[in-house]
Write a structure and sequence with these properties.
By secondary structure, the protein is mainly alpha-helical. Helix content is 58%, strand content 0%.
Length: 111
């Protein structure tokens, strides 16, 4: 493939990204059906809810890389839950029981 062909192919892919293929419609229908199984009123959802739009992918990637996306701070409870889950997984892998954490380590509490 030549460089010119590669550029043309990338341009075509960028144009086609927001147009769902047949497989994309199947996946959207499947997601909609699964949601309807758990809803009290299945008529409240439709397939278009699951359509992904990409828009300007490069601009979105630049926003994420540049750190312009809002960052959520974890609460102390969320941090402790994450620590306890990690300790449980590692303890099970090593065959030991690690008692649950009750407080944040000094370094994590200061940050």
């Amino acid at each position: 493939m030549t460089h010119r062909q590669s550029l043309a192919w990338e341009a075509w892919l960028d144009q086609e990204m927001d147009r769902p293929s047949r497989t994309d419609f199947y996946v959207m229908q499947l997601a909609c059906t699964v949601e309807q199984l758990f809803m009290d009123d299945p008529s409240l959802t439709n397939v278009n809810k699951y359509r992904l739009t990409f828009g300007d992918v490069e601009a979105k990637a630049a926003d994420v890389a540049g750190g312009t996306q809002p960052q959520c701070k974890e609460t102390e409870t969320e941090i402790l839950d994450r620590i306890n889950r990690s300790q449980t997984v590692w303890g099970a892998a090593l065959g030991i029981r690690i008692p649950p954490s009750t407080g944040l380590p000094k370094k994590a509490a200061a940050g």
